[in-house]
Design goal:
The chain contains no helices and 10 strands. The protein has 110 residues and is mainly beta. A hairpin with a 5-residue loop joins strand 3 and strand 4. It is a single-pass type I membrane protein.
Length: 110
């Protein structure tokens, strides 16, 4: 019996297939015998970032404007909202424009 030795790890379910076996792995595990943990299974990347498995765990590829190990940080100045030479400063999830001389307003447009 190919499944007699319990070849499937991490609570995988063994099914006989001819003289061999096939493992149905529990969520989060992959591989012929369910021995490989998928660190991307829990969807660790935030803000629509994409997850890639690496030797040391996982890596998130963030959408433009987001950063951090899990794409958790948003750069409010990413879109360059300040006009007329104004300088953008991030303040939490908001931004503040430091306007050049002769300009004023939230985005230095006045």
């Amino acid at each position: 019996d190919a499944c007699g030795s319990n070849p499937c790890h991490n609570n995988g379910i063994c099914s006989k297939q001819g003289l061999s076996f096939v493992c149905s792995c529990k969520e989060g595990y992959t591989g012929v015998q369910c021995t490989e943990f998928d660190p991307c299974y829990s969807t660790p990347c935030m803000n629509s970032g994409s997850c890639s498995k690496t030797e040391s765990g996982y890596q998130c590829s963030c959408l433009q404007g987001f950063s951090g190990h899990q794409c958790q940080s948003f750069d409010a100045c990413y879109s360059n909202p300040c006009q007329n030479g104004g300088t953008c400063q991030t303040s939490g999830s908001n931004y503040r424009c430091i306007c050049a001389a002769a300009y004023s307003g939230k985005i230095c447009s006045d």
